[in-house]
Structures are given as structure tokens and as C-alpha cells.
Design a protein that fits this description.
With about 220 residues, the chain is α+β, with helices and mostly antiparallel strands. It has one domain (about 5-215). It has ten helices and six strands, in the order H-H-H-E-E-H-H-H-E-E-H-E-H-H-H-E. It has helices at about 5-15, 20-30, 30-40, 65, 70-85, 90-110, 130-155, 160-180, 190-195, 200-210, and strands spanning about 45-55, 55-60, 115, 125, 155, 210-215. The strands form three sheets. A two-stranded antiparallel ribbon has the order 1-2. It has a two-stranded antiparallel ribbon with strand order 3-4. A two-stranded antiparallel sheet has the order 5-6. Helix 1 (about 5-15) runs antiparallel to helix 6. The radius of gyration is 17 Å and the shape is globular.
């Protein structure tokens, strides 16, 4: 899943108000932010297999450090603990930790059985990527639902707070459309390099949040 992780970030911001939207994006997408780095270092592996699944050509051969449930649970606990140590915000710490772990459960719905429970452990996946329509519906529900909650809970302080948000929404949707509906990437290395752009969405989230306020 791609858009759905941003939906979690938007929705989580309405549950815990103190962490920035940028921090929630970092938490919800932590696995996919670290993954391309480990690909480039040769620690994790993916193959591009056109036609493997209707909505994804990616054969995730080995990615236990970013996409196993156990490691994501540990990462979530660490992320929440670090935030609590810095901000002394228990509600925000729990929400951020759960946002990290949510990545595995959202991916579980779309991946084929390649998501490990723990490094070297059994693998799971419900395989929604076998259907393009179901994939698009799932992404739209989670992303659209989170965005709806965020829009209800916040308001723009100024024009930047409005257009920065909507440009973000348009950009991530276009990125997703290009990857889901366009030709498969030519290889694992170009895929990893292009995925580094996901890091830009974290400061973008902080920028949006600075120009929006919670509704009374």
C-alpha cells in the first residue's frame, strides 16, 4: 500500500494533536523510508517481475528488517519512546508507535504472502494487488478517510495552509498513479533511487502543519 499510509498519518493527527503531521508521516512511512536505503546497500532485495501481480511487479525477496511485524513493533516502541522522551506527550507517543506498526497491517492487505512475521519466520499477505480495482478502492478508502478526518479537525491559518495541503494530496496521488498504472521500473536500483523522494514528504508535512490549526 502507498496512499493508505498517508491516510493513517492524516487520521492519527486527529487522535493525537501535539505531534506534527510531518512526524506522523515519518512514523507511518518509516518502513518504506528505510527500505530503499537498505536496497541500495544490498541488505534487502527486491526483483521486478512484470505481470507478477496485476497492481505490482515487485517480488520482495528479502526485507525482514523493514517489513517484518516484529521489527516494526520494536521500531514503533522505540519511535514512541524517543518522542515521549523529547515531548513528554504520552498520547502522542502511543499514536506514533501505533502508526509505525500500522504499516505492516496495511501492507498485509495488498501484498501476496511475502510479509514476514519476524526475520526468518512465516510470511503473510492477502493479495489485493492481484486486482487493480480492489487495490484502488482500498487505497482510496484509507487515504480518503484519513484526509477527511484531518480536514474536519483542522483549518488553514492562511493560504499556505490550504494550497500546501492540496498540492501535497495531488502530488502523492500522481506519484501513486504513475507507479501503479505506468510501466514497471527498469530494475531494483532505479526503484530504490526513485523511492528516496518519499523523504521529501516528511518536511512537507511539517510545513503543512505549521500553517494549519485545530478547529475548536
Amino acid at each position: 500500500m502507498f496512499l493508505g499510509h498517508y491516510g493513517v498519518a492524516f487520521g492519527a493527527k486527529t487522535v493525537a494533536h501535539k505531534p506534527s503531521l510531518g512526524t506522523f508521516i515519518l512514523a507511518a512511512q518509516l518502513a518504506d523510508l528505510v527500505w530503499p536505503i537498505l536496497l541500495l546497500l544490498g541488505i534487502e532485495r527486491v526483483r521486478i517481475v512484470p505481470g507478477l501481480m496485476a497492481a505490482s511487479p515487485m517480488d520482495f525477496e528479502y526485507y525482514p528488517f523493514t517489513h517484518s511485524l516484529l521489527i516494526q513493533a520494536v521500531a514503533g516502541a522505540c519511535f514512541g519512546s524517543i518522542y515521549f522522551g523529547l515531548r513528554k506527550d504520552g498520547r502522542g507517543a502511543v499514536a506514533l508507535g501505533l502508526a509505525v506498526v500500522s504499516h505492516w497491517f496495511l501492507d498485509l492487505t495488498v501484498h501476496r504472502p511475502d510479509l514476514p512475521l519476524y526475520p526468518g519466520g512465516p510470511k503473510f499477505g492477502l493479495g489485493i494487488w492481484n486486482s487493480v480495482p480492489l487495490t484502488l478502492i482500498a487505497e482510496a478508502i484509507v487515504f480518503g478517510g484519513g484526509l477527511y478526518l484531518y480536514l474536519r479537525a483542522t483549518a488553514a491559518k492562511d493560504r499556505t495552509g490550504s494550497w500546501a495541503l492540496w498540492f501535497f494530496v495531488a502530488f502523492v496521488v500522481l506519484c501513486y498513479a504513475g507507479s501503479a498504472l505506468g510501466p514497471p521500473p527498469p530494475g531494483a536500483t532505479p526503484l530504490a533511487i526513485s523511492a528516496i523522494v518519499l523523504w521529501l514528504f516528511v518536511p512537507w508535512g511539517y510545513w503543512i502543519d505549521r500553517h494549519r490549526r485545530l478547529r475548536s
